[in-house]
Every structure is written in C-alpha cells, then in structure tokens.
Design a protein that fits this description.
alpha/beta, five-stranded parallel sheet, two-stranded antiparallel sheet, 20% strand, binds flavin mononucleotide
Length: 182
C-alpha cells in the first residue's frame, strides 16, 4: 500500500506531526510519502496512492486557503480512497469548550470542501515562539497568558499528544488492512 501524507503548516508543528505519521506508517510495513501541499513535487498527482492522510493547522479560526485549494483540486480522488484529516491547533490542547471549537473548525472545513474522510482528528499543536516575529510573539504570548498556557518566549512549547496521534494512525491502518482482506 502506498499512503500519501500531505501537510499544510505555517510554523512547522504540522510538518512534525506528519513526519511522525509517516514514521508510524513505515514501521507498519506500508510505504508512506510526506509532501508539503505548499511545495508539491513537480507534476504531483494523487494517482498511485491507495490512501491519503492530510494534516493542516488553524490560524485565526481557520484552515488555510492553500488547504482549501488543494482539497478542492483533488476532491474526486479524496472521496474515492480511504482518507484521514487531522487538524492541528491550540484549541485542541485547551478546555472542553476549546476542544469543541477545534472540532467545529474541522467540521466546518469538511462541509465547505465536500470532502468526507473516514477519520477526523484534532491534534494539540504548539507555541513556537522562536519561529514568530516580534508582533506574533507578543500576540501569542498575550493569548497564551489568557488561556493559562506557557508564556516563556525564550523557547518553543509543544502540547502534541503523540500517543493520541499513534492511535488514530493505527486505527486507520487497521481499517485499511480489513478493507484489503474483504
Ligand atoms: C498567528 C496565529 C494565530 C493562531 N490562531 C489560532 C486559532 O485561532 N485557534 C487555535 O486553536 N490555534 C491558533 N493558533 C495556534 C496554532 O494552530 C498552533 O500554533 C499550531 O501548532 C500551528 O501549527 P503549524 O506550526 O503547523 O502551522 C494560532 C497560531 C498563530 C501563530
């Protein structure tokens, strides 16, 4: 099985999660290929992939325009093969109400795009202060303080629950195996 892991990132956390997903897939004996949707290889198509994982992050309450374009361009194939969507945000690391926001971002995106992945997951992201410019660092520190998150801007902070990532990838691989058998 050849599995695509396509990711959309601004500060790098979703790339890190995508790479982890690719490693889990490789350890299971399947072939995984990770690509950055903002820099796809020349002549890239979804042909030849038996399953697709897409991961993207939230900024200002939304997934990016680049993600919308990628999904819209490939919608027929995406709805034709088994797929997962995972969405990386700080809301996913927050209170119950914030986690509900993280799920809402996913559902809104899927309704608007017409994509129907078998598995949807929200993944806690990070505060990558070292990657932000001065203004963004100031703004994110202010938000972090109001949410009770880390405010030490001298380093990056990561809230990703790697076991939870392993779990949804393993669930997906089990579904694929079952489909292959039937
Ligand atoms: C400018 C900015 C705006 C953000 N807006 C939101 C938001 O509205 N909701 C949320 O849950 N997280 C928000 N985040 C947090 C990101 O989703 C989080 O840092 C995530 O790890 C980013 O992933 P990436 O590095 O792959 O882009 C924001 C982060 C930045 C820097």
């Amino acid at each position: 099985m050849k599995i695509l892991i396509a990711y959309d990132t601004s500060e790098g956390q979703t790339r890190k999660v995508a790479q982890h997903v690719a490693d889990v897939i490789a350890r299971s004996g399947q072939e995984g290929e990770a690509i950055d949707i903002r820099r796809p290889p020349v002549g890239f198509t979804l042909d030849g992939f038996d399953a697709i994982v897409i991961g993207a992050s939230i900024h200002l309450g939304k997934h990016s325009r680049q993600l919308s374009r990628f999904v819209s361009h490939h919608i027929a194939r995406l709805n034709d093969v088994p797929s997962i969507f995972f969405s990386v945000s700080l809301s996913a690391a927050g209170s119950e109400r914030e986690q509900a926001d993280a799920s809402r971002y996913v559902e809104e995106f899927l309704i608007q795009s017409g994509w129907n992945p078998a598995i949807r997951a929200t993944v806690a992201g990070g505060l990558r202060y070292r990657e932000y410019n001065v203004l963004k660092r100031w703004m994110m520190k202010k938000i972090a303080r109001s949410e009770g998150m880390d405010t030490d801007t001298s380093k990056n902070h990561e809230y990703t629950d790697w076991n939870a990532v392993d779990q949804f990838v393993s669930g997906f691989l089990a579904q694929l195996e079952q489909q292959e058998r039937t």
